[in-house]
DNA sequence: CATATTGATCGAAAAATTCGATCGATATGG
DNA sequence: CCATATCGATCGAATTTTTCGATCAATATG
């Protein structure tokens, strides 16, 4: 069965008129008639009552209508999602965590556009678990994230290593007054482990924050200290709005890129990965 | 685009082999090849990597896969739902409330099977509001229910009038000791209004029940009185397990059938309605 | 190196789709 | 009552698409 036939059925149902349906579909009335008849024959039921001033759906036609909509929509959407934009040769689908978006992907886009102008880019910012699934299912070509799971068939490569440094709103060289104004920011499981090792005797901080940007806003507004990516606080250190606690340990937080070990277009993937490595070098903390 | 093409894509994706896919679809390998190529051309992307020992989905192919499944399923299901069973000329879709199922529809089915053996029956038991919507949408041909809403384009016809009579587990001629052992059964809005008019000074009964069968079970188990359909309690009256309170008012509870005022097959509908009227007469309280 | 398996390709045959013209039925207006 | 307009069905011819069988080239297997 042809999807054009189903689309014709929907158009006739909408207009109630074979001629008008034909116009909308850019075919003749006899074509519409033939299509609807083919559909009716395939289903084995009349879908329209042909009468006086046009047509109306039969009970069977109305029953079929919702499935017709679903069928056409599923096909149309699948085509849309899968097809390449006009004038492109291939496409790369990349998923990333929001926090790595600005830092890496935003710079990778122009790199790709100039290096491979005929490759369309499909980008999504999502959270890590669903992204790993999409990579495993082959729905994404590249994932950029902290803390990937290891899955067979997927290669994981360190892209850059962020340095998390302790900063405070007051100048001080040693670890600050814990508990009082320290803000614990959850930078993920790796950080948690390192943090616990370094500050084994530390009591539970009064404030702990799940999202980095929130923690930074908090200490800037209310004063305090906490671990933040060097890159993110560097301008604030220059402005003397924050001070680095130089004696405190520095933690490392690596970001990875994940990709298929056996891609359908090895060459294309290699180029895209090279671009990511390039922007990662440029974005390195130094 | 042809749905067989999409089905072929799915079969190839499942088997990883054009030959085997062809066998499953009862076509030759070259047909499968042509179909997949047509699909790829229509989408503008290769969906498989053809290689050494078979084929594998590309990223695009994997992306398309779920939509392919959705498309085929929607069409297949629509055809299933809409098509007539083998050897039937037409079909009638009837929806009813559960409580009227046994009373009417169960007897209507054999009537229809013998009167119109080449008409398929589609039956669903549902609750009134969604049923009226389905009737209005033309998804049902006939609805059988208490308390239909009136909707333009739908005809409503009284099918039978149930008599609700007061019965008690103890013999008594007059209204029983209210409140103490009377069970109020909610037989719908009409009943509520009549009941309130007849027993204006009645206090709120101790027990009120939403479903008729539950109320009947309750008074049979624990003793008491309440309104029930004459038809339902008649055998219990004969067995002297219940006694009718003859002086109490009798309430009427009409059941209706609802159908399109302008059906696509008037003659067929008329015959089905005649059948319903017939079984309703037989089921009348007398 | 022979052999088997894979998907692509080609040409011919078959099937389907499409179009334009026309038909019959029905409604509208004078 | 009749001329006219509108509607969908139908027909035949032209076109396009689909299918098949045979064959080819590439790649594994023993």
Describe the structure.
With 286 residues, chain A is of the alpha/beta class. Chain A has 2 domains: 80 residues, Orthogonal Bundle (Arc Repressor Mutant, subunit A), CATH 1.10.10; 197 residues, D-Maltodextrin-Binding Protein, domain 2 (3-Layer(aba) Sandwich), CATH 3.40.190.290. Chain A is 47% helix and 23% strand. Chain A is built from 10 helices and 11 strands. In chain A, the strands form 2 sheets. In chain A, strands 3, 4, 5, 6, 7, 8, 9, 10 and 11 form a 9-stranded mixed β-sheet that branches. In chain A, strands 1-2 form a two-stranded antiparallel sheet. In chain A, strand 1 and strand 2 form a beta hairpin. In chain A, helix 1 crosses helix 3. Chain A is elongated and about 90 Å long. At the A-B interface, helix 1 and helix 4 of A face helix 1 and helix 4 of B. Chain B binds a DNA duplex (30 and 30 nucleotides) through helix 3 and strand 1.
Quaternary assembly: homodimer
Number of domains of chain A: 2
Overall pLDDT level of chain A: 88
Give the name of the CATH architecture of the largest domain in chain A.
Answer: 3-Layer(aba) Sandwich
Low-pLDDT stretches of chain A are none
CATH topology of the largest domain in chain A: D-Maltodextrin-Binding Protein, domain 2
Rg estimate of chain A, integer Å: 29 Å
| Helix-strand sequence of chain A | HHHEEHEHEHEEEHEHEHEEH
Largest interface: A-B, 44 and 44 residues
**Percent helix of chain A:** 40-55%
**Major β-sheet annotation of chain A:** 9 strands, mixed
The proportion of residues in beta strands of chain A is 15-25%
**Can you identify the CATH class of the largest domain in chain A?**
Alpha Beta
- Number of distinct helices of chain A: 10
**Tally of extended strands of chain A?**
11
Shape verdict of chain A: elongated
Could you say which structural class the secondary elements and strand pairing of chain A correspond to? alpha/beta
């Amino acid at each position: 069965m042809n999807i054009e036939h189903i689309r014709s059925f929907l158009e006739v149902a909408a207009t109630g008129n074979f001629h008008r349906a034909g116009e909308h579909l850019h075919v003749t009335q006899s074509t519409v008639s033939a299509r609807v008849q083919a559909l009716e024959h395939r289903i084995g039921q009349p879908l329209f009552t042909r009468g006086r001033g046009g047509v109306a759906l039969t009970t069977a036609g109305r029953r079929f209508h919702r499935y017709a909509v679903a069928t056409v929509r599923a096909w149309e959407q699948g085509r849309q999602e899968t097809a390449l934009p006009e004038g492109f040769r291939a496409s790369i689908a990349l998923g990333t965590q929001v926090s790595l978006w600005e830092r890496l992907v935003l710079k990778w886009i122009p790199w790709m556009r100039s290096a491979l102008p005929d490759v369309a880019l499909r980008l999504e910012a999502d959270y890590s678990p669903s992204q790993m699934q999409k990579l495993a299912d082959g729905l994404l070509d590249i994932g950029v994230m902290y803390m990937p799971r290891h899955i067979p068939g997927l290669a994981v490569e360190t892209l850059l290593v962020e340095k998390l440094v302790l900063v405070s709103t007051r100048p001080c060289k040693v670890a600050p007054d814990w508990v009082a104004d320290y803000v614990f920011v959850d930078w993920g499981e790796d950080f948690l482990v390192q943090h616990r090792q370094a500050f084994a005797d530390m009591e539970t901080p009064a404030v702990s924050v799940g999202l980095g940007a929130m923690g930074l806003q908090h200490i800037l507004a209310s004063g305090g200290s906490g671990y933040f990516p060097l890159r993110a606080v560097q301008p604030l250190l220059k402005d003397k709005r924050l001070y680095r606690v130089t004696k405190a340990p520095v933690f490392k937080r690596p970001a990875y890129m994940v990709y298929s070990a056996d891609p359908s277009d090895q060459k294309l993937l290699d180029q895209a990965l090279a671009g990511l490595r390039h922007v990662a070098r440029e974005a390195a903390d130094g």
